[in-house]
Design the sequence.
């Protein structure tokens, strides 16, 4: 399903309750009351859809990428919060019991405490869930604790929100819309159950174990896994997986890492992991034989669908080399005849991962490898500085590579600079794939 179809699907889901309310044909109220109800209906629908907009559903991430899914999740959460916050303030009709003649509650707003308290709970809960997510880095919560609280908080908001709609809503009192809310809540909770219970239970039957952990570069490790049993991961070069290392499959401690191995080279998986925080700092001490659970493959950073691109340019910053190494390795292993270019930015030479293998790929497969160092040592003959517009002009535009496919992975500022420069050089947007190693 293309991205536009997903957007249309999203709008359809988010606006369905509003459409069903409108279709009831109830006598109109003041514009402010209608606006208040409309905001509430759309906010609640958006909250329920959020449960499907998380980067764990392969059917979605493989099409649009986890970056896009997470950005849309965050954007929709902010919009839903604004709608939900405004929702109670627009009502202008009296809050009281309706007079006997007003069976459609045209002149009043429901005020009973049993109807209102779930709304207050959902309203405050949504504010807390979104604020905690926005403040996560500043507040420094441990990722796993934050993740657990985020899931629980979201389930509470959804449950309370639906209860409020069913008890208080003028339109949600309708049977059809009421069932739509219950079905939506059921699907939202099913999505959580799928992620935290069903999928881990299935993964428990396909364990992996650590073959080796060896240094790959400065503060960077090469982790190799092998399946315990006959199963294997069916992935495409450039995709990533969530790894639960040395913990039970139901643990909240899983981290995403790009697969750096080539699928056609066998079932073993390789990851290039940079020390960054509490889990990755311990990666070098993981003993061989440690059990690992692999949730994947995810991600869209692959050559699939780009068979008509005449060449492949890979642009990596730091550990962003991991998925691109997988792509280069797969191109060599599968004999992809297209020319390839790797522009690989690092600070110092000690950070370059798999330098010998990259040289061998250049020699044997004809890939052009350009190292870019921002702090080059004396006598360095490669490119210096950062991968920027003038450098891309030389290696892309002047080298006649505008119609190639560009696959980018690295720190967000680098990706922004490179994407903007490529577009400026006339590379079509559909020929630029990028992934940042940030999942928040
Ligand atoms: C799609 C994707 C692919 C990635 N591929 C690689 C790779 O090939 N090699 C590599 O070295 N790094 C990769 N990363 C980054 C890697 O996931 C983080 O560096 C790692 O999870 C940090 O964990 P930590 O506990 O050591 O650090 P912490 O100090 O706990 O966290 C540092 C930051 O890492 C992120 N993070 C931490 N834990 C998680 C988690 N469980 N899930 C998601 N994000 C988390 C958060 O943004 C956090 O602020 C990738 C990230 C993503 C999103």
Sequence:
């Amino acid at each position: 399903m293309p991205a536009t179809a997903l957007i249309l699907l999203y709008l359809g889901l988010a606006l369905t309750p509003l459409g069903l309310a409108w279709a009831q044909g109830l006598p109109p109220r003041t514009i402010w009351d209608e606006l208040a109800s409309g905001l509430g209906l759309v906010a609640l629908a958006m909250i329920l859809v959020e449960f499907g907009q998380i980067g764990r559903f392969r059917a979605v991430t493989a099409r649009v990428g986890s970056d896009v899914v997470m950005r849309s999740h965050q954007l929709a959460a902010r919009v839903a919060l604004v709608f939900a916050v405004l929702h109670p303030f627009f009502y202008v009709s009296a809050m009281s019991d309706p007079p006997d003649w007003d069976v459609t509650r045209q002149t009043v707003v429901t005020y009973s405490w049993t109807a209102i308290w779930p709304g207050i709970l959902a309203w405050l809960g949504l504010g807390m869930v979104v604020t905690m997510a926005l403040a996560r880095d500043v507040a420094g919560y441990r990722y796993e604790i934050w993740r657990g609280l985020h899931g629980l908080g979201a389930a509470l908001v959804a449950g309370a929100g639906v209860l409020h709609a069913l008890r208080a809503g003028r339109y949600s009192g309708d049977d059809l819309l009421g069932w739509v809310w219950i079905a939506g809540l059921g699907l939202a909770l099913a999505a959580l159950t799928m992620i935290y219970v069903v999928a881990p239970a299935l993964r428990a039957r396909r364990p992996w174990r650590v073959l080796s952990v060896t240094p790959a570069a400065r503060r960077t490790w090469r982790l190799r896994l092998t399946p315990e049993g006959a199963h294997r991961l069916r992935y495409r070069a450039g995709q990533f997986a969530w790894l639960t290392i040395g913990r039970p499959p139901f643990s909240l401690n899983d981290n995403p890492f790009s697969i750096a191995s080539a699928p056609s080279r066998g079932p073993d998986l390789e990851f290039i992991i940079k020390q960054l925080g509490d889990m990755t700092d311990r990666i070098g001490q993981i003993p061989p034989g440690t059990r690992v659970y692999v949730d994947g493959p995810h991600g869209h950073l692959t050559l699939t669908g780009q068979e008509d691109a005449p060449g492949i340019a890979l642009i990596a910053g730091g550990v962003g080399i991991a998925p691109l190494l997988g792509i280069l390795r797969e191109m060599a292993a599968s004999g992809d005849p297209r020319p390839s270019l790797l522009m690989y930015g690092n600070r110092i030479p000690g950070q370059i991962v798999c330098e010998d293998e990259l040289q061998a790929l250049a020699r044997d497969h004809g890939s052009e490898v350009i190292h870019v160092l921002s702090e080059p040592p004396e006598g360095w003959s490669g490119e210096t500085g950062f991968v920027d517009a003038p450098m891309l002009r030389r290696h892309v535009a002047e080298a006649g590579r505008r119609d190639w496919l560009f696959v980018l992975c690295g720190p967000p500022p680098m990706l922004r600079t490179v994407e903007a420069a490529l577009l400026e050089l006339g590379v079509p947007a559909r020929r630029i794939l990028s992934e940042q190693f940030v999942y928040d």
Q: What stands out?
A: Residues 3-203 form one domain. The radius of gyration is 26 Å.
